[in-house]
């Protein structure tokens, strides 16, 4: 998911992020919908790690970020990774 990179050079990874080529509904599916396709796109993206780090640092609670769903990111936080 993209944020204005002009405000923060640390977000430059978003300039080439594959999610820029898909609509937000792809990464924020309706409850109960599959996140498989979004995760596949994330896993092919060179900005995946930076995206995941951003989501964990900013407590993003919704959508697929860095190839992980909300529940998967919460699991990382609980285990002390995030």
Automatic annotation (TrEMBL):
<feature type="domain" description="4Fe-4S Wbl-type">
    <location>
        <begin position="18"/>
        <end position="75"/>
    </location>
</feature>
<dbReference type="InterPro" id="IPR003482">
    <property type="entry name" value="Whib"/>
</dbReference>
<dbReference type="GO" id="GO:0046872">
    <property type="term" value="F:metal ion binding"/>
</dbReference>
<keyword id="KW-0411">Iron-sulfur</keyword>
<dbReference type="GO" id="GO:0051539">
    <property type="term" value="F:4 iron, 4 sulfur cluster binding"/>
</dbReference>
<protein>
    <recommendedName>
        <fullName>Transcriptional regulator WhiB</fullName>
    </recommendedName>
</protein>
<feature type="binding site">
    <location>
        <position position="42"/>
    </location>
    <ligand>
        <name>[4Fe-4S] cluster</name>
    </ligand>
</feature>
<keyword id="KW-1015">Disulfide bond</keyword>
<keyword id="KW-0238">DNA-binding</keyword>
<keyword id="KW-0408">Iron</keyword>
<keyword id="KW-0479">Metal-binding</keyword>
<dbReference type="GO" id="GO:0045892">
    <property type="term" value="P:negative regulation of DNA-templated transcription"/>
</dbReference>
<feature type="binding site">
    <location>
        <position position="45"/>
    </location>
    <ligand>
        <name>[4Fe-4S] cluster</name>
    </ligand>
</feature>
<dbReference type="InterPro" id="IPR034768">
    <property type="entry name" value="4FE4S_WBL"/>
</dbReference>
<comment type="function">
    <text>Acts as a transcriptional regulator. Probably redox-responsive. The apo- but not holo-form probably binds DNA.</text>
</comment>
<feature type="binding site">
    <location>
        <position position="51"/>
    </location>
    <ligand>
        <name>[4Fe-4S] cluster</name>
    </ligand>
</feature>
<keyword id="KW-0805">Transcription regulation</keyword>
<dbReference type="GO" id="GO:0003677">
    <property type="term" value="F:DNA binding"/>
</dbReference>
<dbReference type="Pfam" id="PF02467">
    <property type="entry name" value="Whib"/>
</dbReference>
<keyword id="KW-0004">4Fe-4S</keyword>
<keyword id="KW-0804">Transcription</keyword>
<comment type="similarity">
    <text>Belongs to the WhiB family.</text>
</comment>
<dbReference type="GO" id="GO:0035731">
    <property type="term" value="F:dinitrosyl-iron complex binding"/>
</dbReference>
<feature type="binding site">
    <location>
        <position position="19"/>
    </location>
    <ligand>
        <name>[4Fe-4S] cluster</name>
    </ligand>
</feature>
<dbReference type="GO" id="GO:0005737">
    <property type="term" value="C:cytoplasm"/>
</dbReference>
<dbReference type="GO" id="GO:0047134">
    <property type="term" value="F:protein-disulfide reductase [NAD(P)H] activity"/>
</dbReference>
<keyword id="KW-0963">Cytoplasm</keyword>
<dbReference type="GO" id="GO:0045454">
    <property type="term" value="P:cell redox homeostasis"/>
</dbReference>
